[in-house]
């Protein structure tokens, strides 16, 4: 996963988490499940980014900054 894709997904999820916490669009139970779903997306994205270099190559490949 490229670094820019990781940052974009994490920022969008962060904004969604903030909106979920401050705006009453969903009932209480819906807010909880939205939080769980967004947290899962952020966690999966972080794990995928952990195993990749910033240019998207696998982490096992030596990263050469260009």
What is the gist of this entry?
The protein has 66 residues and is mainly α. 65% of the residues lie in helices and 0% in strands. The chain has helices at 3-22, 28-50.
Write up this protein.
The chain is an all-alpha fold. It contains two helices and no strands. The chain has helices spanning 3-22, 28-50. The radius of gyration is 15 Å and the shape is elongated. The mean pLDDT is 94.
Annotation keywords:
elongated; mainly alpha; 66 residues
What structural class is derived from the secondary structure elements? mainly alpha
Residues in helices, as a percent range: 55-70%
Count of individual helical segments: 2
State mean pLDDT (0 to 100 scale). 94
* Sequence of secondary-structure elements: HH
Number of strands: 0
Question: What is the CA-CA span between the terminal residues?
Answer: 17 Å
Helices and strands in order:
Elements: H1 3-22, H2 28-50
Helix pairs in contact: 1-2
């Amino acid at each position: 996963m490229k670094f820019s894709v990781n940052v974009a997904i994490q920022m969008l999820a962060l904004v969604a988490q903030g909106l979920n916490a401050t705006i009453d669009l969903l009932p209480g139970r819906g807010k909880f499940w939205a939080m769980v779903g967004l947290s899962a997306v952020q966690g999966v994205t972080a794990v995928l980014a952990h195993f990749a270099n910033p240019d998207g190559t696998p982490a096992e490949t030596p990263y050469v900054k260009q």
